[in-house]
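Journal club side-thread
Mid-discussion, someone asked how the predicted structure for our own chain would compare to the paper's figures. Pasting it here so we can look after the session.
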Amino acid sequence: MSKAVRIIGALVLVIVVGFAGWRYYQAHRARAAGIIAESITHDGDTWTADMTARVTAPEDTVYNAIRDVQNTHSDQVKAVRVVSDSGNTKVVDMDLNGPGGQPITTRLQFEYDAANHRITYHTLDNPMLSTDAEYTLDDEGGSTLIKLHETTKFAQSLPVPDGVIKDVIRGIFVSQLEGLKRTLHVDTADKTNEDDTGF
């Protein structure tokens, strides 16, 4: 066997092992954040995500923490600035950590429905993508079940594997949960259901 074939084989092995390790880390991070179920699919350039997480805090406390989106900071979310706040509607500019550490700013409009334990948001004036999402909160006594339904449509096809887009969508929700965890000073992991994530 030639030296070049051995080098290429070694490189392929390193890439496969590295990718497997990275995927394991992402799955572990999602479980630690509290995700207990997820489904991320796409039809063309439209992606649909349904994710469920459990947070060990009362529903009203979780709702208020999500409502105060401007306090969110995590690895993915660098800063949030309130543009307007009127009654049950809030518009914010959110700086996300983009490729190469470059910030990507997106404008989001949130609408709050406390009576139905629901928060919705959508992107405003974003030429790259359009996102509509809804959080539904279910009170479980000492903990809260958060269900996220999100639809994202990209303006053009992205030249990356589906797994990368799924990781980005999951990563944003995981970052939101990690930020929520820090804000509430609670543990979001559901230790009894660690094997139910579907990863």
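Post-session note: Residues 31 and 194 are 6 Å apart (CA to CA).
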